[in-house]
Amino acid sequence: MPEFEAIDTVVIGGGQAGLSMGYHLSRKGVRFTILEANQRIGDSWRQRWDSLRLFTPARFSGLNGMPFPADGNVFPTKDEMAGYLEAYAARFALPVRTGVRVDRVSKAEDGSLVVTAGHRRIQARNVVVAMADFQRPRVPAFASGLDRDIVQFHSSAYRSPDQLRPGAVLIVGVGNSGAEIAREVVLAGHETYISGKVSGELPFDITGLAARLVLARLIFRVVFFRLLRLDTPLGRKAQARVVGKATPLIRVKSKDLDAHGVARVPRTAGVRDGLPLLEDGRTLGVSNVIWSTGYEPGFSWIDLPVFDGQGGPVHTRGICAAEPGLSFVGLHFLYAMSSSMIHGVGRDAEYLAAHIARRRNEVKAPAPRRPVQAVA
Predict the structure, then answer these.
(1) Could you tell me which residues come within 8 angstroms of residue 357 by beta carbon, excluding any fewer than 6 positions away?
(2) Residue 98: which pLDDT band, with cuts at 50, 70 and 90?
(3) Is residue 50 within 8 Å of 188, Cβ to Cβ?
(4) Closest CA to 290 of 179, 132, 197, 128
(5) Per-residue pLDDT for 185 more than 90?
């Protein structure tokens, strides 16, 4: 027998966006719950590669109401970030249910939304999808043609060089993940190739004194947070250029790859005789391939007409006009360049919490007391 309950607002995702959403909903007095698929808050960070550090220093790595507990100039590790999120949820007593993976969001006959998670069904006036728009790893179809002896996996599954076979490594994709993994792999003694084109890089060292004292504040607080917003001409221009494209290299730059002996090669275009085929016609005799080729939105479980042809939600500042009870937070450039960043997600969450509180005041009818049927 399915379990049923009714609640005003369901937040899907217990990462930085979901917890920030919970913080602001609680301040508005909204009754809500947060559903997190992982068994523990912060697991989405713990599951990333072992040596990962944030690109933002600690002073820009905290959510509203609780600064990150470290020297402001250090770059937290992924495990420190995971611990911080867990502590944040505990400090503000946020109602997070872990180990609950949502299977479907649909619409009920009375116009409310229904969240299905296994045997649970939750009816809600509002659903907030608090997840980034990189949920499903993207790997080219031709990857299946690689020789079976070649170890291959997406960068989301990379933890350390211990996963690799002896021999050469090809990393496909020159984004930040690819560049950082390439440096680590070559330093571990593997002949290393990185395939693709650099889309740009920061013109300074983020760990340097000038960056720590001046540039970081200028970039994160002024440029990303205030200037590059969708309500400014500069922000709209930036959004059109960056969405769907690789981000500039931040910590590991082209010169670092060259200095460590990483061989940069053209785009990987296919497979020939079981080996990676470059667009210049060469094949590479490697023992390992790491696909640092990005992600797809992965929102197919939302059974509502709110998406464009690329699978992304159509929204204004996270609110879907076609379904006002559904909103998104944590998406790349949802409102500003900082929207998917730890220091910027709170502004979007506060805006959506105010929207949800207004809906609560406008809709006076109580939540239904018995299950309703979702529209097929």
Answers:
(1) 28, 29, 30
(2) very high
(3) no
(4) 179
(5) yes
